[in-house]
Design a protein that fits this description.
The chain is α/β, with parallel strands linked by helices. 21% of the residues lie in helices and 22% in strands. The two termini are 19 Å apart. The structure holds fe (ii) ion (2 copies). One fe (ii) ion is lined by residues 73, 102-104, 176, 215.
């Protein structure tokens, strides 16, 4: 087993390709594990088992990633026992891990169990992670007792100062609540307000390359005022696709996933990994594959084949 790297360290994963000098980095995006204390379940699923499955899959297939980022709703009700269970699970992850809080979290209980996670001068879980690809800025958008996102004056002041310090560097933003609608009324009601102010800070910096968010429990890709954005399914339950007039929030057992994010100097790609998938893998260009009548007839990939 590989030794866990120090949190926040910058690896030497900077290399040159024949076409041009690039900075390449791979990290894992995980969101909304909603951990409940042992032995509780949530929405007829076991969030601890789900996250454990994701972590085992990451360790097996993506142990070369720089780190993982969890974009909030770490616990469902924010109890100390839930955070202790989360810590026990994350101890198995062979990557450093950067944590954000979401509306389901309880900041004090979180900080008591994860005292190493940095906070800003006002105690908000906000910090900057330097990486080979640029600065990852972790934002705290939670408001106690509210499902809606809040970004208060103190937090805006912190962000404005950090973005000023990071002038000339690529920046990647991470936050739980998106500052825009995604078309699902029940989620749009709890989006982050003050979008104009955030957008103006992003515009003033001039090189914010991507925004990763959580909260919506769905795979959503898009762009907001020119900044590309994405969210992922949660590792436990999902929110159904209710477009239209309804304000009801539909839970679902659609499949969970984490994101495998590849960053180069000129692009960001997010690969969705369904970590409970056990469907067949086969050599796609093999004639036997094309002619297979059933999954049992499919040839197996060569042992040297490295894909998932
Ligand atoms: Fe959530
Ligand atoms: Fe949330």
């Amino acid at each position: 087993m590989r030794a866990k790297r120090k949190q926040g360290s910058i690896s030497d994963n900077v290399f040159q390709t024949p076409r041009q000098k690039v900075i390449a980095m791979k990290f894992i995006h995980i969101t909304d594990p909603h951990i409940v204390p042992t032995p509780q379940t949530l929405c007829a699923l076991d969030p601890r088992a789900r996250l454990a499955t994701a972590i085992a899959d990451i360790n097996r297939h993506h142990a070369d990633a720089e780190f993982a980022v969890l974009t909030g709703d770490l616990a469902y009700l924010g109890e100390p026992a839930a955070y202790r269970d989360l810590r026990r699970l994350l101890d198995k992850l062979e990557l450093p891990c950067h944590l954000l809080v979401g509306n389901h979290d309880e900041r004090t209980n979180f900080r008591n169990v994860f005292p190493d996670t940095p906070v800003d001068e006002n105690g908000f879980v906000q910090y900057v992670v330097p990486t080979p690809a640029g600065a990852f800025v972790m934002m705290d958008t939670m408001e106690a007792e509210a499902s809606s996102g809040i970004y208060c004056e103190n937090r805006f002041a912190w962000l404005e100062a950090r973005l000023a310090e990071l002038a000339g560097q690529p920046v990647y933003l991470f936050l739980h609540h998106p500052p825009f609608d995604i078309g699902i009324n029940s989620l749009d009601a709890s989006r982050l307000p003050d979008a104009d102010r955030l957008a103006s800070l992003i515009a003033r910096h001039g090189d914010v390359r991507y925004m990763f968010y959580g909260h919506v429990h769905r795979a959503v890709w898009g762009a907001w005022r020119g900044t590309p954005t994405s969210a992922l399914p949660g590792t436990n339950h999902q929110v159904g696709l209710t477009l239209g007039d309804t304000n009801e929030m539909l839970g679902s057992h659609e499949r969970p996933a984490y994101g495998v994010v590849l960053i180069e100097d000129d692009c960001v790609n997010v690969h969705l990994r369904d970590f409970i998938d056990d469907s067949p893998r086969f050599p796609l260009l093999d004639k036997m594959s094309k002619g297979a009548a059933t999954a049992a007839d499919l040839p197996r990939p060569a042992p040297s084949f490295a894909g998932i």
